[in-house]
Amino acid sequence: MELLAVIVGLEAVTRPEIPILVVSDSKYVVDAVEKKWVFNWAQKPDFGKKANEDLWRRFLRVYQNRKVSFKWIKGHAGHAENERCDVLAVQSALGKGLLVDEGYEAQG
Which long-range contacts (CB under 8 A, 24 or more apart) does 36-39 make? Predict the structure, then answer.
């Protein structure tokens, strides 16, 4: 969920020259980029057999055209915007009529 949020956010930026700071409580997402793991996975024929290959490849396509930096914050620690995002994510997950994640379902 966090990775898709980053992707959609980056895709929404229409001026790629503007620096973007992604603030996230997802160590998975932040570390994958900041520690260059995702770039190493992308060099392997099977993407290193990592989960979410479809999303990571989508991320890399949008990332390469942006000036993006990442900052990790601890989740559920009183960061107002992070708490709001959590509330919205939970509400969405509990909602009706959710779209099917085709990439995830295909891994089945």
Answer: none
Helix extents (H) in the chain: 2-12, 27-34, 37-42, 53-63, 80-93, 102-107
CA distance linking residue 34 with residue 51, whole number of Å: 18
Per CATH, the architecture of 2-95 is what? 2-Layer Sandwich (3.30)
Burial class (CB within 10 angstroms; exposed 0-12, middle 13-18, buried 19+) of 2: middle
Q: Where are the domains of the chain?
A: 2-95
- The tens digit of pLDDT for each residue in 49-59 reads 999 999 999 99
- What's the pTM value of the predicted model, to 2 decimals? 0.78
Q: Say how far apart CA 52 and CA 79 lie, in whole Å.
A: 27
**What is the Rg, in whole angstroms, of the alpha carbon atoms belonging to the chain?**
15
